[in-house]
């Protein structure tokens, strides 16, 4: 039996602990002076001319374009993409909603500022008086009101017009018929 452990991992013949590698055998031959330096025989150093050129007659083994590892890697990448598609879509939808809500918030802030400004203006008595004169045609006692009707200036006091007395004498249905006749032309 040999002292080297076999492939099946049986115990070594001399019962020494084995690492699974063949034991080192050192040469006891003397090294000559015209032998190459020891650095050239290191495993990482290439020596030129060592490999024999391939002959054209020997068929070269081609590597397949798609290997099993490439298929497995592609499948894993596809599975990862499908797994992450839903959360990424939800994230992007959430970002769009946040931008929309931020725009609505800015609009509401602007509207609140406008309303605060309008409230401050309306608390000013001069503004309220000016609005009452323009919109409601209010006049203060002693002011003169001039209303232009059909291109003619009609003067009167603040509460009445000159034509108002004539229309008050007619019953309502006659006033309606007269207004229809005037509108008809």
Give a quick summary of the entry.
By secondary structure, this protein is mostly helical. Helices cover 46% and strands 5% of the residues. The radius of gyration is 54 Å and the shape is rod-shaped.
Low-confidence stretches: none
Please report which band the strand proportion falls in: under 5%, 5-15%, 15-25%, 25-35%, 35-45% or over 45%.
5-15%
> Would you count the extended β strands for me?
2
What's the SSE pattern? HHEEHH
Provide the residue-averaged pLDDT. Answer: 77
Structural class: mainly alpha
Q: What spatial order of strands do you see in the largest sheet?
A: 1-2
Radius of gyration: 54 Å
Separate helix tally:
4
Query: How much helix is in the residues?
Result: 40-55%
Distance between the termini: 137 Å
Question: What does the model show?
Answer:
This protein has 185 residues and is mostly helical. Helices cover 46% and strands 5% of the residues. The chain is built from 4 helices and 2 strands. A two-stranded antiparallel sheet has the order 1-2.
Keywords summarizing the entry:
185 residues; mainly alpha; 2 strands; 46% helix; FtsL/DivIC; membrane
Please describe the topology of this protein.
Blueprint lengths: L67 H55 L2 H12 L8 E5 L2 E5 L7 H5 L3 H13 L1
Antiparallel strand pairs: 1-2
Pfam family, one: DivIC
Organism: Blastococcus deserti
Keywords: Membrane, Transmembrane, Transmembrane helix
């Amino acid at each position: 039996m040999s002292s080297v452990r076999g492939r099946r991992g049986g115990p070594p013949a001399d019962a020494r602990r084995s690492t699974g590698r063949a034991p080192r055998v050192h040469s006891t031959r003397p090294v000559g002076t015209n032998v190459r330096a020891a650095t050239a025989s290191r495993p990482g150093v290439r020596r030129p001319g060592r490999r024999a050129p391939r002959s054209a007659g020997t068929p070269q083994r081609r590597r397949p374009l798609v290997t099993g590892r490439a298929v497995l890697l592609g499948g894993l990448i596809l599975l990862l993409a499908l797994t992450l598609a839903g959360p990424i879509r939800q994230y992007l939808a959430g970002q769009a909603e946040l931008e929309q809500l931020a725009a609505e918030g800015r609009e509401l802030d602007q509207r609140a500022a406008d309303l605060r400004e309008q409230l401050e203006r309306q608390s000013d008595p001069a503004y309220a008086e000016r609005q009452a004169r323009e919109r409601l045609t209010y006049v203060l006692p002693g002011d003169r009101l001039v209303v232009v009707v059909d291109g003619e200036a009609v003067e009167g006091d603040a509460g009445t017009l000159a034509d108002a007395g004539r229309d008050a004498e007619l019953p309502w249905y006659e006033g309606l018929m007269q207004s229809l006749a005037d509108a008809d032309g």
